[in-house]
Amino acid sequence: MAQDNGHNLDRDRFGAMLQLMHRIRAFEEAAIAAQKDGLVLGAIHPSIGQEAVAAGICANLDRNDLLLSTHRGHGHTLAKGADPLAMMRELFGRAGGTCGGKGGSMHIADFGVGMLGANGVVGANIPIATGAAHGLKLQGSDRIVTCIFGDGAINRGPFLEGLNWARVFDLPVLFVCEDNGFSATTRTREMTGGGGAGARAESLGIPAVAVDGNDLVAVDAAARAAIADIRTGKGPVLMHCRTYRITGHTAVDPATYRPASEVAAQRENCPIARLESALRLAGMADGDLARAHGEAAREMTDIAAQARDTDWPAPEAAYTDVQDMGDPRERAF
Amino acid sequence: MAQDNGHNLDRDRFGAMLQLMHRIRAFEEAAIAAQKDGLVLGAIHPSIGQEAVAAGICANLDRNDLLLSTHRGHGHTLAKGADPLAMMRELFGRAGGTCGGKGGSMHIADFGVGMLGANGVVGANIPIATGAAHGLKLQGSDRIVTCIFGDGAINRGPFLEGLNWARVFDLPVLFVCEDNGFSATTRTREMTGGGGAGARAESLGIPAVAVDGNDLVAVDAAARAAIADIRTGKGPVLMHCRTYRITGHTAVDPATYRPASEVAAQRENCPIARLESALRLAGMADGDLARAHGEAAREMTDIAAQARDTDWPAPEAAYTDVQDMGDPRERAF
Amino acid sequence: MATDTYLNAGRRAVIEEMQRDGSVWALGEDLGRGGVFGQYKGLQEMFGTSRIADTPISEACIMGAAVGAAMTGTRPIVEMRFSDFALCAVDELVNQAAKARFMFGGQMRVPMVVREPIGMWRSSAAQHSQSLEAWYAHIPGLVVVTPSTPADNLGLLKSAIRNDDPVVYLEHKNLWVLEGDLPDGEHLVPLGEAAIARAGDAVTIVTWSAMRHVCLIAAETLSAQGVEVEVIDLRTLWPWDRDTVFGSVQRTGRLLVVQESVSVAGFGAEIAASVAEALHHDLKAPVRRLGAPRIPIAYAPALEDRARVSQESIIDAVRGLIAPRTAA
Amino acid sequence: MATDTYLNAGRRAVIEEMQRDGSVWALGEDLGRGGVFGQYKGLQEMFGTSRIADTPISEACIMGAAVGAAMTGTRPIVEMRFSDFALCAVDELVNQAAKARFMFGGQMRVPMVVREPIGMWRSSAAQHSQSLEAWYAHIPGLVVVTPSTPADNLGLLKSAIRNDDPVVYLEHKNLWVLEGDLPDGEHLVPLGEAAIARAGDAVTIVTWSAMRHVCLIAAETLSAQGVEVEVIDLRTLWPWDRDTVFGSVQRTGRLLVVQESVSVAGFGAEIAASVAEALHHDLKAPVRRLGAPRIPIAYAPALEDRARVSQESIIDAVRGLIAPRTAA
Ligand SMILES: Cc1ncc(C[n+]2csc(CCOP(=O)(O)OP(=O)(O)O)c2C)c(N)n1
Ligand SMILES: Cc1ncc(C[n+]2csc(CCOP(=O)(O)OP(=O)(O)O)c2C)c(N)n1
Ligand SMILES: [Mg+2]
Ligand SMILES: [Mg+2]
């Protein structure tokens, strides 16, 4: 239905969001290609098909607002404003990576733009995000925190503990369940009792809104409303965004546990294509649409090439950033 | 309202339950007195005022059914059929205690009557109980599991994980939230978002029923209905029993954090007195009512005296029941 | 005798024990699709969804449910995916599983096996690379096993499943693909017995898990140079095989402990300290440990390698131990 | 100079640091009523409900929220009540707090103090008595502190609160009532420095936490018999004060490590192994550890005592170390 309003769309705003979605996808496509070339060193979890969540949420955040993400966090990180070159360098384990090559894809973070980290532990960022909001509130800040997690994460205890905490302390947190239907290779619904993320949030006293996560315009509208509420001090809100993971769990997972027909149908439901249709309806020219795609692809191919030409971190950096006290080098001898 | 049917009460059945409630109270009163004399060695968490939950639930369990409890578990353990002398010996740290003196009040257990343990960690028994039900189901057993926990426990992650699990695997578990309003010295409602235990259970797909936990007749009726459903294979049910903790959190907590008027009002709401009224209405003689009380008090005073005269466990028992492999005695030298 | 991988050896152990004993079952995330590494491949087809159970992402409940299921007479095999995620279930393992038999005065036992893949696996970074065997060795009530070869993974996992107490079973991710001979018939390796992976008289190297193989390579190099080291693979860390270790050190007079995990407060300290206490007067040189520095494990290879014990560092350490003593 | 308890010393440390630095706050269950032991008594009245925050019974979230709050510029003091309950929050401490600074390449720090009361406290049984300092010492990124006197609890807790990395701060439950002198003005004890609790030349005893006091009593008895032992209280386990320990052992030639915790894979193994490695040739006797057997802690006193290191066993061990060597 939000789509029906296509002809009323603000072309500048949504054009920029289309561009961002293209950039996210192009970044991940470049990363997947680079992994085949042995350049990406560890596992990566692509968010291809899920870009509208990242773009629609982050468009409504200020740079100063904070964001915490998941193991599938490239899109969120880019949408929050991180430098894709630094990100690609991180995936390649190079100097100048967002984390100096120490973290890799699953620990990507850019505190400079308020992106407080992916996390390798499912659900672990829910309490941390809640605490970040707690910290902001204690300091009288008007910034808010957004915490994105997957549908699988709602079956971990920290989901309950974190949401309850956010309600009890009336914290400014937007919880976003990015529901792609899968917990790695398992269909989440088979492992989930009851009505899912929204029902659980409501049982904890947190208002919940469900949205088609492949409809950028809908995600944007819901995020705007939720964030406005949070900014007026109403406490936490949960958004449940239904989407689909087009790739396997990791870039190398063939995902044979789901029928090809299902994936094909979901490809038709691509959030980028859907936004393109809406923008076309709103009068955006085909040439402009194509340009957005082309530019993004070029940018990320370029970036991958630059990342490839970047130095490795100095081995001695392994001993820094551990802690102030004590000599981390201390071996037995 | 269940109380209104007082004159229809089955005097034998509820007379026995009255007797049980008296015995629970008398056991704890004897334990508190013994603690003042230095005979009970560790902390004890009395359930005075909460006896209707233990009695009303366990009256509907078979001896073969399993029960898991909390740190406040004397009443549940007695109601499941454990020998009070063995229990008192355990509190006194003596030989012949239910756990041979190794556990004490917070780890009281009697596997012989299906009582799989109190637990010193809030909420920890929820996954264990769920797993016990999982084990029974795998073995094709028709026994069920009851898991009692406090209102504070619903803020721990294992509550969500355990209930979700029980729903996903359709396990025969009765979850009982024994809500005495307090999490140690904190009012639970101030630390709890949303509608509490029942709302959370329902959000996980588990039917919930709320009951006045000081109304033995009501607890009994609700437990009977819930357990009947569970026995027919409908999966887990949650009962939310509202009650009140007349003593402090432990026997030595003066509980000055609550107004005396509140405690006085709650004393009026005593589940034993309420059942006595109902039984009086049903025609039970005052003499019989008094006898039930007197017998229970005598039984437990006696038991405390016997426990006091019991030997200490042999010190070498410290090294048994650890594990089959390896010498637990192994010190550095 | 067939050649197969460490991964398939573990898989075979599970199959054999599940066929032998109907009370054995496995639970964990994604087991129906074979588990993260394929250790459970095809098992759900063989044994059904009840005995090879897919679970929610609920590590605390996976572990806690296993405790309850073990108390009621089944023998669960818990799959933790990466040992790092077992940190979401420590209360359940350490406060519950390990202590229940004792706390309840021996009224029952908790026969369960907790499989936790450990170790560095290229560029897995800080939350997917840890080896915390020292923690478990410190906890009364737990048995701790670290298989290093396909045959041992077969024989030790079978023994672990038959054990009546909780066993923390730490397979090494880098070893999944390792090939080796597997005996054809029933193959049980008793818990608590070390293996002498290589005999020698110059230095006793005590190691476990993947480091066994690095030590053996170093030993070959040393052998070519005329130094014959004895390599002892502990296999079980609790209870560890004091007799084999002490016997060897009594012969060689020299001990090097090699571990992948952080050296500080690592299990190597237990071995080194025990030998120093018991065999001080037999030692021809100080005991010595090699392990990781006290740093989290990084993603970039050059950094990650700083946390690795190399063949070279083992060779250097052995040379140091046999060098004539110079003034301090 | 005033006399006060270990408990009040900790309370004073919190008050002074909260007054000095508005970003310091405390969170945990029941803090508004003073905490389980009264360590926070009156603090909510002084600082309000925001800075002395009561929390739900949600250990994982208490710890995790502290990590997030520390990342955003506050300095949380986490109260875990009993160290045993911290086992419900291990992912948050070990995978998150300890590693964040490193994993994220030093983009920020996680200044937080985790107070975890440890130790045996008569008849508290297996889930309320543990001492797992060895675990934390093994984890890169954590500082580990074990105060043993009122003055140290004041000075170390203040230093811990000022530290920019996560500090695991292990107060001993049996020491709450211990009285001692507290300096009047600002009193900071630097992290990483041991205290020589008693000088001596016969044997170096290295210990920490409540065992310091048991060692000192044993030392008096030994002194009356003409044996002067040196008692070193490590105070900080990571980083531990190698210089003080090594300097002492170089003088005495004998080391006894005394710990309350389970000896197997305990922190004492690290000390004993380190001394054996570095000072083998200075040793006049083998290094030696005393600690608890590998059993859970029981409720009944006679059983519980089997897990206790006694004054007598310390005296025996010292005598063993100074006895002339007899044939093995
Ligand atoms: C605590 C924990 N358990 C298991 C894993 C392994 N794991 C990584 S991603 C994943 C699936 C998570 O599903 P979801 O939360 O829906 O996120 P998605 O991958 O779909 O984005 C799992 C099980 C983990 N990283 N952490
Ligand atoms: C994980 C954990 N956190 C904290 C405690 C300390 N504690 C013991 S009982 C208790 C209150 C529990 O409240 P509730 O669950 O309502 O049970 P009640 O005591 O009211 O019966 C607390 C916080 C504990 N034992 N375990
Ligand atoms: Mg998902
Ligand atoms: Mg309560």
From TrEMBL, chains A, B:
User: Carries keyword ATP-binding?
Assistant: no
Region annotation (Disordered) ranges: 308-333
Tell me the InterPro entries matching this sequence.
DH_E1, PDH_E1_Alpha_Subunit, THDP-binding
CDD domains under this entry?
Answer: TPP_E1_PDC_ADC_BCADC
Limits of the Dehydrogenase E1 component domain: 21-310
As cofactor, the record names: thiamine diphosphate
What reaction is this protein's catalytic activity? Answer: N(6)-[(R)-lipoyl]-L-lysyl-[protein] + pyruvate + H(+) = N(6)-[(R)-S(8)-acetyldihydrolipoyl]-L-lysyl-[protein] + CO2
- Keywords of this entry: Oxidoreductase, Thiamine pyrophosphate
Source superkingdom: Bacteria
* PANTHER family according to UniProt: PYRUVATE DEHYDROGENASE E1 COMPONENT SUBUNIT ALPHA, PYRUVATE DEHYDROGENASE E1 COMPONENT, ALPHA SUBUNIT BACTERIAL AND ORGANELLAR
Function, as annotated: The pyruvate dehydrogenase complex catalyzes the overall conversion of pyruvate to acetyl-CoA and CO(2). It contains multiple copies of three enzymatic components: pyruvate dehydrogenase (E1), dihydrolipoamide acetyltransferase (E2) and lipoamide dehydrogenase (E3).
This chain belongs to the protein called Thiamine pyrophosphate-dependent dehydrogenase E1 component subunit alpha
- Species: Sedimentitalea xiamensis
Automatic annotation (TrEMBL), chains C, D:
Q: Which UniProt keywords apply?
A: Oxidoreductase, Thiamine pyrophosphate
Question: Which InterPro entries does the UniProt record give?
Answer: THDP-binding, Transketo_C/PFOR_II, Transketolase-like_Pyr-bd, Transketolase_C
List the Pfam families.
Transket_pyr (PF02779), Transketolase_C (PF02780)
EC main group: oxidoreductase
Per UniProt, residues of the Transketolase-like pyrimidine-binding domain are: 4-177
Q: What superkingdom does the record give?
A: Bacteria
Does the keyword Kinase feature in the UniProt annotation?
A: no
Q: Which cofactor does it need?
A: thiamine diphosphate
EC number(s) given by UniProt: 1.2.4.-
Could you tell me one molecular function GO term of this UniProt entry? oxidoreductase activity
Which PANTHER family does this entry report, sorted A to Z?
PYRUVATE DEHYDROGENASE E1 COMPONENT BETA SUBUNIT (PTHR43257), PYRUVATE DEHYDROGENASE E1 COMPONENT SUBUNIT BETA (PTHR43257:SF2)
Name of this chain's protein: Alpha-ketoacid dehydrogenase subunit beta
